[in-house]
User: What shape does this take?
Amino acid sequence: MATAAVRAGEVVLDAGAGDGALTFPLSEAVGANGRVIAVELDPGMIRSLRPDLPENVQLLEGDLLTLPLPSDLDAVVANPPFKIVAPLIERFVNARVPRAVLVVPFELSDRLTAAPGSERYGPLTIRVGIMAETAFVGRLGRRAFRPAPTIDCAIIALRSRPDAPDVPREALDSVLNVASAAWGRKAKYALATLPDTFRGDSAAFQQFLRDANMSDITTSQLPPDAFGRITAHLVASQRAE
Assistant: This one.
């Protein structure tokens, strides 16, 4: 809760309310002028939570991956279901939720905070890193949960980047698919086929890579911002036709 820095009057999403372990403290933190939106899929949990909920808590039953996100969200503070946590994080950052504090599998926290060129660095790191800054807050042992999970967990904090490029997800995925297939090669070789995919000019694309000092860097060492710039360039070139 301290990491989330929830303030009075805010609108906060509890993604996967469960037995209300976070819902009730969040309700107190946002106060009478704030709102907590608690989402839960399990009907049994819904029935047990509903009678005791404070007035400033809105309880929704549904799938976190498909329920519409409120447009006025200030934050997400949650211990979401681990089987959907990766796509859920991508959903939050793509929706530009200002900040989120989440409990995730430790392995996932490693991937999300991995540095370019490291073993864990990959497409997920890049897709999230383009849209948000991710910080490792701390590790949680299995004894912190009831029932105890079979894996160690971590707390991560995400903050939306105001300078995040507006690149289409499908276009970024096309770039990352090509890049990850030649992860250890220099960008000028690994990404050489991308202009064909985007109906662009190969010579102009190679010149773009040289001008951006990316040409001789391997794709595995390019930071998230670089992939955002590459995608934006390819999309803009395509639109210019």
The chain has two domains: 11-160, 169-239. The chain has a mean pLDDT of 92. The first helix runs from residue 23 to 30. DSSP finds ten helices and seven strands in the chain.
